[in-house]
Structures are given as structure tokens and as C-alpha cells.
């Protein structure tokens, strides 16, 4: 059906648009325009910024028995959401599009002014894209957009006391910092398993991945992707792990493993085997699931992310070996450096740390996405 058959400037509803945005139906049927149209499915979340959601399919149907013989029936089978596996529910179709109700990220980043309703041209079939329905109202009933006090950018959370990893803290060993983004930074690990063992750390004070705000999560993911590319170019795959237990500031450990040493399956088997030996229940979680869906803020946990995107998760209930992640990677099955399982046994002089940091900065520079900003 050609979109031009319906005057999108005169049809559509801000109320229904708002409802569809908030309710996120799996299927949205419409019939008021008396014509058939089925758009591509659209996603209900912002990739890498929000928890994955199911897709929505919008279908308009013509009137029953219409003389043009346009489609007025739609046959389909649907499994109730509560009976579906979470990973299967949020699986995105290959032809999925962005949400038509949202302003595109590109427009948002360019800071384009929102056009007045009479100047705005509709660009989606049956969708009212007036921005006014997206503005929140205060408890006084006034439009928040007219507030004389515009909302200021949120400052990163501050630590309650001294912190070794908050970038603004005087305790930070700044000579180990090798790259700084907008919300996160990279630093060489002190007493690392290798010369290029690095940490992804939030600039503000966050205890775990679960507590990160959306913009910080987005940059963490950017660093992950970039580091994988960087290490792959050097003949290595990287393993990431986080231990949210007896730690006060998120440290996402990124350890490169030479491709010649072992396969990803070998690394996975080593973690599972050593976990079983220590009575640690290490569970494989669905590839598309988010740690935020599994662990609540404040809950203690340990998780590993492999270069394939596979994740292993353990909910810490009582005690947990602090060096577990390092012990597995330092074992004979992986890096074969068991004497380096404790970082305190691997420290080098400040001069050597400075030299290693300079070298990493130089090697990483061709991959540095912060230079594009």
C-alpha cells in the first residue's frame, strides 16, 4: 500500500501514540483509516542504553468486504508473554527498525529545535509525531518546558569517602590512566596479569555495572567493542569480568589472551571447572540478557563475559574467593602463569608502570573513539 493513500497530517492521534510508547504492545492493530498497511517491526528500547524489550508490529486493516478487496483479516498465533523464555521474547527480528515515536538519536545529538506542530511534517504512516505529548507536567499542572530553571546535566555520583578509582580523587594513581572518555576511563591494572591488562572504570562513583546510568552503560559498551577490536588486531581475544563483592568502585577487568594459547570454549570450560571445584554455582545466562535483569542494585555477584558475548554469572550469598577471576585466567589451562594469581605479587616500579602506560596509549591511539568526539 502506498503511504500517500492516507493524509498523515490529518490522521493519527497523540493519545494513541503516547499509549503505544508506554504500553509497548507486541501487536498494534488499527482500522479507522479503512485501508491495509503493515510496517516493519520496531524496537521498544534504545540499543546499549536500555534493557532489551520485545518488538512491536503495527498492522492496519481495511473494512470487511471493502470493494477494493484490501486485506481485512490477519491470521497469526501468539504465545502469552508469561509463557515465553525471556531471551526468546526480546529477540529482535532481522528487519527491525527504530521506534517511530522517538526523535532519532542523530537529531537529538545535533540539538535541533522541536518544530511547532503546524510546521511539522508527518513522516510515519498513522503516527502522530507531535513532540508535545512527550513533555512531562509538574505537580502544579504547568508544562515543564516553560520552567524558568532548565534542567542541568546530572553530576556523576560522589564517593562517601576516599576512593582509589574516582578519577577526581587524589588517591587515583593517574600515571596508570591510559584513556579518558566522557563517562568512563581506561587504566592499566596495577599488578596486571599482562602488560596490557586494563580496567574499564566509571569516572563517577558507581559500585557495580547494575548501578550505572544509561549514558555510562553506553560508553562502557563502546570501550568493550573497541578493546575487542584492538586486541584482535594484536592476535588476542579478551575476557572481561567483574566482582561486585568487597569492592566500592566498579572495576571491569579486561584481560587479553593470545589466540594461540586456547579457544573461547577452553576459557569457558576453565571457569566452569574451577567453579565446580570450589562449590561456586556459575550459571550461563542468555546472550541478550542484561546483568540488570538478574542482579538488583546492592546485590553481590561475579560475572564473566567472553569475546563471543557469552556470559557466566554467580550470585554471591556468603563468601567468595577474591582472586577467583585471576586464578582461572592465570591457570595452566589459560595463561599458564599461576604465580600471578595475586596482584600483590605482580607489582612493578612506578617508572616501569609509566613506561607500560605510555606504550599502551601509543598502541591504542588508532582505535581511540574519544578522538572522534
From TrEMBL:
GO MF: RNA lariat debranching enzyme activator activity
One GO biological process this protein is involved in is: mRNA splicing, via spliceosome
Domain Cwf19-like protein C-terminal residues, every copy: 278-370
* Listed InterPro entries: Cwf19-like (IPR040194), Cwf19-like_C_dom-1 (IPR006768), Cwf19-like_C_dom-2 (IPR006767), HIT-like_sf (IPR036265)
Q: Where is this region: Disordered?
A: 94-115, 133-159
Q: Report the domain of life of the source organism.
A: Eukaryota
A Pfam family name for this chain?
CwfJ_C_2
Q: Where is the Cwf19-like C-terminal domain?
A: 157-262
UniProt cross-references to SUPFAM superfamilies, sorted A to Z: HIT-like
Gene Ontology cellular-component terms for this entry are: post-mRNA release spliceosomal complex
UniProt similarity note: Belongs to the CWF19 family.
Protein name stated in the entry: CWF19-like protein 1
Amino acid at each position: 500500500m502506498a503511504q500517500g493513500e492516507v493524509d498523515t497530517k490529518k490522521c493519527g492521534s497523540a493519545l494513541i501514540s503516547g499509549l503505544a510508547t508506554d504500553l509497548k504492545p507486541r501487536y498494534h492493530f488499527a482500522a479507522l483509516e479503512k485501508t491495509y498497511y503493515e510496517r516493519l517491526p520496531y524496537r521498544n528500547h534504545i540499543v546499549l542504553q536500555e534493557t532489551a524489550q520485545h518488538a512491536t508490529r503495527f498492522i492496519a486493516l481495511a473494512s470487511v468486504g471493502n470493494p477494493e478487496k484490501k486485506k481485512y483479516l490477519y491470521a497469526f498465533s501468539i504465545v502469552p508473554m508469561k509463557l515465553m523464555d525471556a531471551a526468546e521474547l526480546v529477540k529482535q527480528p532481522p528487519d527491525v527498525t527504530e521506534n517511530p515515536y522517538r526523535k532519532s538519536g542523530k537529531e537529538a545529538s545535533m540539538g535541533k529545535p522541536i518544530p511547532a506542530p503546524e510546521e511539522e511534517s508527518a513522516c510515519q504512516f498513522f503516527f502522530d509525531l507531535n513532540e508535545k505529548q512527550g513533555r512531562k507536567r509538574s505537580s502544579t499542572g504547568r508544562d515543564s518546558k516553560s520552567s524558568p530553571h532548565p534542567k542541568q546535566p546530572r553530576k556523576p555520583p560522589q564517593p562517601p569517602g576516599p576512593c582509589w578509582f574516582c578519577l577526581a580523587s587524589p588517591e587515583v594513581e593517574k600515571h596508570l590512566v591510559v584513556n579518558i572518555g566522557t563517562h568512563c576511563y581506561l587504566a592499566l591494572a596495577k599488578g596486571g596479569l599482562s602488560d596490557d591488562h586494563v580496567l574499564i572504570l566509571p569516572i563517577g562513583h558507581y559500585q557495580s555495572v547494575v548501578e550505572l546510568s544509561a549514558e555510562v552503560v553506553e560508553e562502557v559498551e563502546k570501550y568493550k567493542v573497541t578493546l575487542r577490536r584492538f586486541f584482535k588486531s594484536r592476535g588476542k581475544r579478551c575476557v572481561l569480568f567483574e566482582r561486585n563483592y568487597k569492592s566500592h568502585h566498579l572495576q571491569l577487568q579486561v584481560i587479553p589472551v593470545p589466540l594461540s594459547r586456547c579457544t573461547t570454549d577452553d576459557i569457558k570450560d576453565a571457569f566452569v571447572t574451577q567453579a565446580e571445584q570450589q562449590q561456586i554455582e556459575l550459571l550461563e545466562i542468555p546472550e541478550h540478557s542484561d546483568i540488570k535483569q538478574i542482579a538488583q542494585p546492592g546485590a553481590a555477584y561475579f560475572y564473566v563475559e567472553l569475546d563471543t558475548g557469552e556470559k557466566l554469572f554467580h550470585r554471591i550469598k556468603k563468601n567468595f574467593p577474591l582472586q577467583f577471576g585471576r586464578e582461572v585466567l592465570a591457570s595452566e589451562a589459560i595463561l599458564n602463569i599461576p604465580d600471578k594469581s595475586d596482584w600483590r605479587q605482580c607489582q612493578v616500579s612506578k617508572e616501569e608502570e609509566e613506561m607500560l602506560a605510555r606504550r599502551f596509549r601509543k598502541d591504542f591511539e588508532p582505535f581511540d573513539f574519544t578522538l572522534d568526539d
